[in-house]
Amino acid sequence: MRIAVLADIHGNLPALEAVQADLRRHAPDIVVNLGDHLSGPLQAAGTADLLIETDYLQIRGNHDRQLLDRPADQMGASDQAAFGQLTARHKEWLNSLPATKMLGEQILLCHGTPDNDLEYLLEEIRGTEVGLRSPEGIQLRLSSHVRAVLCGHSHIPRLVRTSAGVIIVNPGSVGLPAYEDTHPSLHYMETGSPHARYALIDQEAGMFRVDFVAVEYDWEQASRDAAAAQRPDWAHALATGYTLRG
Fold first, then answer.
1. Cβ-based neighbour number of residue 236 at 10 Å
2. Residue 246 is assigned to a structural domain of this protein
3. Is the distance from CB of 179 to CB of 168 less than 8 angstroms?
4. Cys-Cys with 196: which of 15, 82, 183, 188 at CB 3.0–4.6 Å?
5. What pLDDT sits at residue 127?
6. 190 located within any domain
7. Is residue 147 part of a domain?
8. What domain range is 98 assigned to?
């Protein structure tokens, strides 16, 4: 079975369309989409329209939840920008998405950790520094029955094996290659290039082969769109893969 793994599109419709075009070359048996579909200053409504019509196996991320669980005036800037584009149909679709899901009997889909969409599964924050969590620390956040976990949230492509032999894949972000966050403290996530990213997993006879894919698209136009929306942080991240600091 070939699984395509997408995450963290963040309303970047041209990046999603480029990934979809690339997927046609690889003919996956199933596409999973791990949340944070719409939040951001770009094309939230268009992204939702496209995703609603797919047969992807989709779950929600923290930003998808935050688009529904609080008034607009209590949302962050990216959620507010997306919320202003959403129709009742879009909100109904978001509300239908589960927080986690099993693919078969041994592959778990989650956004952050299985229990918390705001926590990183693979990374830990030490002051402003981001480090990889220990194999034992990762395993403590998992149940004993899973063979593999597909997660998002950090936007950083990773393949990790825990102390119990569980394979964890984060495909990176389709739509936002860098960002600054303040939870649990100020830190920066950066991939270092503006490509749209996803992963391909070939599962055969209990073995997993994982390929990370970086796709070119018109990120300069995406950056200009973000700048026009008064988001210089997004404009810089989309054009470079780095955060705008200072």
1. 18
2. no
3. no
4. 15
5. 86
6. yes
7. yes
8. 2-240
Question: Following DSSP, what letter does each residue of 149-170 receive, concatenated?
Answer: EE--SS---EEEE-TT--EEEE
**Phi and psi angles of residue 161, each rounded to the nearest 5 degrees, phi first:** -115, 125
Query: What pLDDT, on the 0 to 100 scale, is given for residue 205?
Result: 78
Q: How is residue 200 written in tokens? A: 């391909």
What's the pLDDT at 177? 98
**Residue 73 per-residue DSSP state:** G
Residue in 57, 9, 58, 7 with CA at minimum distance from that of residue 172: 7
Kindly report the pTM of this predicted structure.
Answer: 0.97
Domain total of the chain: 1
In a domain, residue 245? The reply is no
Taking the chain (246 residues) in runs of 10, the rounded mean pLDDT of each run is: 98 98 97 98 98 98 98 97 98 98 96 97 94 96 90 98 95 98 95 98 90 98 98 98 91
Distances (CA, A) of 162 to 69, 136, 169, 217: 33, 6, 11, 34
